[in-house]
Amino acid sequence: MFKRWLRNSTIAMALAFMPLPAFAQDAIKQGGDIVITYKDDIATLDPAIGYDWVNWSMIKSLYSRLMDYTPGTPDLIPSLAETYEVSPDGLTYTFKLRKGVKFTNGREVVASDVKYSIERAVDPKTQGPGAGFFGAIKGFDAVTGGASTTLEGIATPDDSTVIFTLSRPDATFLHVLAINFASVVPKEAVEAAAGDFGKKPVGSGTFVLKEWTVGQRLVFERNPDYFVKDMPHIDKFTVEVGQEPLVALLRLQKGEVDIAGDGIPPAKFVEIKNSPEGADIIVDGAQLHTGYITLNTRVKPFDNVKVRQALNMAINKERITRILNGRATAANQPLPPLMPGYDKSFTGYAFDVEKAKALLAEAGFPDGFETILYSTNTDPQPRIAQAIQQDLAAVGVKAEVRALAQANVIAAGGTEGEAPMIWSGGMAWIADFPDPSNFYGPILGCAGAVQGGWNWSWYCNKDLDARAIAADSMSDPAKATERQAVWGKIFTDIMADAPWIPLTNERRVVAKSPRMGGSGDIYVDPTRVINYDAIFVKD
Fold this sequence. Notes:
single chain; alpha+beta; 7-stranded mixed sheet; 23 strands; about 25% helix; globular
């Protein structure tokens, strides 16, 4: 898939596409209400800010973007755009909008809304974590540097035309226009919300938020004016929050819940898998995922590379995969094995307690030190954090575990100097799109090391940033393999600086009721996590 979209994006073209297709049409039924559960409340539904795996799916369904994906796949297709054209040099993208698409406030979506929405995502005042994705658009540095509030590289000659001019070729640009940060929002609704747009969302997606009772539930209803016929398939979904995963699973088995959003607790996985209804309940799929511990390079003693390298040797990753009942493999680099650019020959840091102690002594900490390890509070993450804590204690590092709600961990990570270490489990990193660059910019690049960002190691290597830009500028299809190799070397070179301890590459396991229909791929969707647009009720 990667090579196909790359090839198509580097030649001049003007393509008209059908609306988002529905697969297995004969099996799909329209209508029905479903219930989904999560332990933690939703932090925000603002597409310029929300960036965790729970709200990502909901944001995808509340808003539309110029580009999207065929459900359950990483295959790009136009969405708000009816046609698009890319210049031969890869620097100009021209999009023609579909006619008659409306926001849920009744106003038609026009080209200026696209421009406003992306400029809002880039604006430093928004404090969104996705600004760096748009770095190739001409004028990006002026906006992020505070010299301008508008992007020179976005032109709207009329209400149905958007023209992007890039300062350099970007092999990922069509994917960028499909991520949540490129969601189109109406300026008047953002301003009317007075800083609370994340609780009062207005978009042009498949669903509309009808109710949000904080700490209890969110209710989404189908948008009757959505521009794709017969999408979505369900009429309503209710997200109940505050549900412990084990309780949610029991309710699902009773028929009270349709999707247990936090998955199956590892302690129950084997039992459920071997039960008579196991095959109808479990969806088990591979994903582009890496779970890791961030080491805050701006907090002592993690500003010392030898300390970071030592801790990479201190963690028994195989024990953590056992806690996950074998639903993961040990990781040794930021990229997951299925991602283009993954270096199979790279071995990383071997588990070696004595070498870790020796390196800590060399760094000036022969007796270790005290620190804090943040984790989410949903099982099994606290248990994994305790296993990490025990491994650290074996090399003299005393780590206090702070197991908090996901939103609190995200906030701590995005505040400079607050979180020395974070175990990312339960959030981790699942690719926004199937390209190695996505594992760099937001979580390891300088652009992500900002207030509210997701680079929780606060790692910034200007040389690697320049190499990353050079890699993404390799949009010539003949250089696709070379580009992957360049990215692979960037990630293995990062490991010399050790801002992370990569721990696991985990499979995603979802529990759904037998009445839920659709391919398993839409419950572990590679670009949405759960694809609320495509799921349906069989009876």
